[in-house]
Specification:
By secondary structure, this protein is an alpha/beta fold. The chain has 2 domains: 199 residues, FAD/NAD(P)-binding domain; 105 residues, 3-Layer(bba) Sandwich (FAD/NAD(P)-binding domain). Helix content is 22%, strand content 27%. The strands form 4 sheets. Strands 1, 2, 3, 4, 5, 6 and 17 form a 7-stranded mixed sheet that branches. Helix 2 links the parallel strand 2 and strand 3. The longest helix is centred in the C-terminal third of the chain and has 24 residues. The structure holds NADP nicotinamide-adenine-dinucleotide phosphate.
């Protein structure tokens, strides 16, 4: 455990994906005393993406890891204090000190404002064998584990951008990639679909859901059920990659800021949450499009709004503090 941090910072940013890092860049350039909390130095989901092709400025594409590292470097360059933690467990208001406390496994971090950018994590299917074979054939990260499947057969479950793009990446190594999707058309963007349909290594398994993962020491088969016919089929695979969507990392915020029924953080257009001085951005925020470019834009806006909030606090007479943020989400 590091020495206790007794400073009340200007802003603490929870999450170091594109949203959190961009918020950190803008806040530190705005000369705010800025702390960014990063779980496991992971850099968010983007760091696990093999190739990012739709972030402007990189016509050849850029690896998600490299883009994440550049964003970190840029935020640090302007003074953001990037700290590694394992977990964030709570957010508490200290009315007497007029600040917020983010509770982490590395101790509390206090600040006059908070930007929430905790991102999302892969949804689990819950089928038998999924938990048992983690690290022995079940994975959520083609970028991390793909090379283990050179010359082998894998199944990718899902029909969204992640499933199709990561499945495409796996065709670099695997001889065959089953794409198991519960409907008969993909959700992924047309350009990704075109590439998938043109790749001989893919076999599309339509209208099918995974039911069980089998094996002895390692994964040997994925049992799938055709939802239209009820027919069961055993796919002989060495690996199963699950890309059936994401869930926001917001359990620790329940009862503190307003969340929607799926756990996404509700804000108004200025990214104010239901608590004064707390802003939200990125994939865990309730918005229409989960893209890096949106996350970075939201990060910038959240930081600029935070600066304004702190300026207003500094100018306000005692007792006027709560008027600065108000219950914005409720009035959105
Ligand atoms: P997603 O778009 O929500 O797709 C999840 C897929 O899994 C869908 O095809 C869904 O089927 C299927 N699915 C959901 N629950 C299932 C279950 N219980 N059993 C079987 N299948 C299930 O998730 P994602 O692909 O992780 O993408 C998340 C977001 O990130 C999206 O907004 C996506 O556009 C974005 N993203 C963008 C890029 C890019 O721009 N290059 C890359 C990756 C991700 P249905 O289609 O039937 O609902």
């Amino acid at each position: 455990m590091p020495e206790p941090d007794t400073t009340v910072h200007d802003v603490v940013i929870v999450g170091a994906g594109p949203a959190g890092l961009t918020a950190g860049l803008y806040a530190s350039r705005g000369r705010l005393d800025t702390v960014i909390l990063e779980r496991n130095m992971a850099g968010g989901q983007i760091a696990l993406t093999e190739l990012v092709e739709n972030y402007p400025g990189f016509p050849e594409g850029i690896s998600g890891f490299d883009l994440s590292e550049k964003m970190k470097e840029q935020a640090k360059e302007f003074g953001a204090d990037l700290r590694e933690i394992q977990a964030v467990t709570g957010l508490e208001r200290d009315p007497e000190a007029g600040c917020w406390t983010v509770i982490t496994d590395q101790g509390p971090v206090r600040a006059r404002s908070v930007i929430l950018a905790p991102g999302r994590e892969p949804r689990r299917s819950g089928i038998p064998g999924e938990a048992e074979f983690i690290g022995r054939g079940v994975s959520w990260c083609a970028t991390c584990d793909g090379a283990l499947y050179r010359g082998r057969t894998v199944a990718v479950v899902g029909g969204g951008d992640a499933a199709v793009e990561e499945g495409m990446f796996l065709t670099k190594f695997a001889d065959k990639v089953y794409l198991v999707h519960r409907r008969d058309e993909l959700r992924a963007q047309p350009i990704a679909q075109e590439r998938c349909f043109a790749n001989d290594k893919f076999e599309l398994v339509w209208d099918s859901v995974p039911r069980r993962i089998d094996g002895d020491q390692m994964v040997e088969a994925l049992e799938v059920e055709n939802v239209k016919t009820g027919e069961m089929r055993s796919l002989p695979v060495n690996g199963v990659f699950m890309y059936i969507g994401q869930i926001p990392n917001t359990d620790w915020l329940k009862g503190v800021v307003e969340l929607d029924e799926s756990g996404y953080i509700v804000t108004d257009q200025l990214l104010r949450t239901s608590q004064a001085g707390v802003y939200a951005c990125g994939d865990a925020h309730l918005n229409q499009l989960k893209q890096i470019v949106i996350a970075t834009g939201e990060g910038a806006l959240a930081a600029v709004q935070t600066e304004k909030y702190l300026d207003e606090l500094a100018c306000a007479l005692p007792g006027a503090e709560n008027a600065a943020g108000g219950s914005a989400a409720a009035s959105a």
